[in-house]
């Protein structure tokens, strides 16, 4: 049998009394109602349901813009911007602590000298590594903003330029 959405309904109340609400769920043709009292503190935190009634799907996810209860795989964020005066596709990656640029794109620009010092970085999977050749300062320009960051230079990479949390924390 198909489950129906859980509906939360509010009862009438005075401004000084606690909020009462009932959550009704239906599973296998059996209806269960649970009643709860909420204090004024909860009401002040906007945690009480308000008309119009909020509807929750049976899988536990909400449809009101709240945080999802199941894992989502969001698309990466890409922009086109100038890196050292050359238009480049840039990816923002909140899962990366550092910023990186591919050597082949860097060679097309007028760039600051690379400080060669090979290092290995651990990937998010916890077992794979990739090597950087060194670091250099890159200048990113979009709209009328010019920013810079020290980026690791890599031979092979999935994108031309990746801006990680070092960049995001510096500018946002």
Automatic annotation (TrEMBL):
CDD domains: retropepsin_like. Residues 1-52 are annotated as: Disordered. Residues 24-37 have a biased composition (Low complexity). SUPFAM superfamilies: Acid proteases (SSF50630). Residues 1-23, 38-48 have a biased composition (Polar residues). InterPro entries: Peptidase_aspartic_dom_sf. This is Uncharacterized protein. The lineage of its organism: Eukaryota, Metazoa, Spiralia, Gnathifera, Rotifera.
